[in-house]
Amino acid sequence: MFTYPANQSFEDFNFPNHIPNFLNDVVANASDAIIQQCGGDARCIFDASQTGNIEIGLNTMEFDMGNVIDREQQGISQFNQNAVFLITNLKYLTSENTV
């Protein structure tokens, strides 16, 4: 359910002829300056092109890079936990305690 500000309705926000801008199209038509400043990063290029503000694109790229680093660190941590689990259980399974 949506609520609208006073004196506004669905019709004020409905644009049936709107054609969205898709990532591939925006990146393909981006200026060389934006592509260069974004280092070829598609999300940066998209945001900078759509907003006309390179800083927004660069912030998107910086945010994305932070997420990649976090995921990589979490992946390494998870790998280490799995390795310890496997080594511990391998020692147990190769001992006289096997089922």
Describe this structure in words.
With about 100 residues, the protein is an all-alpha fold. The protein has one domain. The chain has 5 helices and no strands. The chain has helices spanning about 10-15, 25-30, 30-35, 40-50, 55-95. α4 (about 40-50) runs antiparallel to α5. It is extended. It starts with 9 loop residues before the first helix and ends in a 6-residue tail after the last helix. The model has no long low-confidence stretch (mean pLDDT about 80).
Shape: extended
Radius of gyration from the CA trace? 25 Å
Overall mean pLDDT: 79
What is the tally of beta strands? 0
Helix coverage percent: 55-70%
Number of domains: 1
Give the end-to-end Cα distance, rounded to a whole number of Å. Answer: 58 Å
Order of helices and strands: HHHHH
The poorly predicted ranges are none
Briefly note the structural class of the backbone: mainly alpha
Alpha plus pi helix count: 5
Instruction: Summarize the biggest pleated sheet.
Output: none
Strand content: under 5%
Question: Would you spell out the secondary-structure blueprint of this structure?
Answer:
Layout: H1 10-13, H2 23-28, H3 32-37, H4 42-51, H5 54-93
What's the short story on this structure?
With 99 residues, this protein is an all-alpha fold. Helix content is 67%, strand content 0%. It has one domain.
Features:
single chain; 99 residues; mainly alpha; 5 helices; extended
